[in-house]
Amino acid sequence: MIQFDIEAEEGKARFGCIEVKGKKTRTPLFMPVATRGSLRTLSNEEGRNIGFEALIANAYHLLMRPGTDVIKGAGGIHKYINWPGIIFTDSGGFQMIRSGFERDISLEGVKFKSEVDGKTTHMTPEENILLQRELGTDISMCLDFCPPHPASKEVLVRSVEITTSWASRCKDVGHATFCISQGGTNDKLRAKSCKELVDLGFQGYAVGGLSIGEPKNEMYRMLNIADNIYPHHKPRYVMGLGSPLDILESISRGMDIFDSAYPTRNARHGTIMTSKGRLSIENSRFRKDYQPLDEDCHCPVCTEYSRSYINHLFQANELSGLRLATIHNLSFMHDLIKNAQSAIQEGTFKSYKKEFGDNYK
Ligand SMILES: [Zn+2]
């Protein structure tokens, strides 16, 4: 069971606490992505030291490699990956549909091609939820059908029909589970999807199929629809949303939980998030720039290293450059969320959001 308490509200923004299996974390919550159980370039302990209390892994990828038997043999996912905090797992529906070249989706389930050995496998929504439970995750996500953007109305209609049907079969497996709405950016279909999921009744509600190339105003309109339909007292999760401005906008629209590979992927490409916007650390203008990556950041990288040094590491293809950039970007996201939490408690979120947006160019 998930316990969710809202402790402060400012407008639609909420500050709260999620508790599951005796583990707690504050909301708004940003989860780093550990698709294969790893924070890419960091140890999971380093992720915890930044301050993260929850992460999201991917059931499909873990099933493919190392395999459920290996993780069960180790005593479950928490022990296996050394993460005592909260673990969400995504179903992997997005990956199965995107990477399964022989895409075959039906009410029954999804047929996909393994990325490891190329074998074609079939999975039902029930099997997927049981897989997540076997891994020992704390919170599972229902298998959903996320259409690409843009998609025809016919495909969007089908995405809602299949997603609701699959969700109804993921519901009663005795495990804390979030459902996921679909329907692209079609108002009526998005509302239909949200309503059908609310009628089924879940412990948490996600919004899926956004931040995949649609215009921002359409994405925000879908969040408003979800906010109007989803129960106020349940946690709301926008999947795959990682840019700081999008996250603050979503918080102001009543959303609580976010995950994205955005900070870690950007870091590996030399894109550093700072309070004044993003910078490409590989640029030669940083060659003799001895300032920290972000003068307002108190992370170990900004305390101990200069832009010049990290520019040098990237230029020289030193792996530690990727690590230091990742530690900074994740620290930046963690601070952003902590600041948003404090601002909601103090009733200053609206001005915090504006000030952040004015500076983050
Ligand atoms: Zn920093």
Summarize the structure in words.
- This protein has helices spanning 44-50, 59-64, 68-73, 77-81, 93-99, 125-135, 153-170, 187-200, 216-229, 244-251, 262-268, 300-304, 307-315, 319-346, 349-359, and strands at residues 2-10, 13-20, 23-27, 29-32, 54-58, 86-90, 104-105, 110-113, 120-123, 139-141, 177-181, 204-207, 236-238, 257-260, 271-274, 277-280.
- With 361 residues, the chain is an alpha/beta fold.
- It has 2 domains: 2-260, TIM Barrel (Alpha-Beta Barrel); 272-361, no CATH class.
- An 8-stranded parallel beta sheet has the order 4-14-13-12-11-10-6-5. Strands 1-2-3 form a 3-stranded antiparallel beta sheet. Strands 7-8-9 form a 3-stranded antiparallel beta sheet.
- Helix 6 crosses helix 7.
- The model has no long low-confidence stretch (mean pLDDT 95).
**What do the pLDDT scores average to?**
95
Largest sheet: 8 strands, parallel
Shape: globular
CATH topology of the largest domain: TIM Barrel
Q: Any low-confidence stretches, pLDDT <50, length ≥5? A: none
| Structure classification | alpha/beta
Rg from Cα? 20 Å
CATH superfamily of the largest domain: Queuine tRNA-ribosyltransferase-like
Number of distinct helices: 15
**CATH architectural group of the largest domain:** Alpha-Beta Barrel
**Bound ligand species:** zinc ion
The total count of strands amounts to 16
How do the strands line up in the largest sheet?
4-14-13-12-11-10-6-5
Q: Kindly provide the name of the CATH class of the largest domain.
A: Alpha Beta
How many separate domains? 2
Beta fraction: 15-25%
